[in-house]
Input
Amino acid sequence: MRPKPLLLSVFLMLTALPATQVSAEHQQLSEAARIAIAHLGVAPEQVRVTDEYTSAHNQVTHVYLRQVKDGLDVAGADATVNIQDRTVIFS
Output
């Protein structure tokens, strides 16, 4: 069975889009994310927060970041910063 031209066109358009074009300047950064970015010593527009959560059992906030270059994610350029009571405890 041949794919329908419209569906194929939509699929090709979606797969051709860059994975992410969101920089930190367009994100609403939490206090933990600002602490993590400052700890890494990079400008907010050079990273993107990919995830963040606080562990219920020890109140450690885990901030996951990815390097951004020209608005695009850099593959494999990830960092994790763990924060407790506004202090970086591990990165």
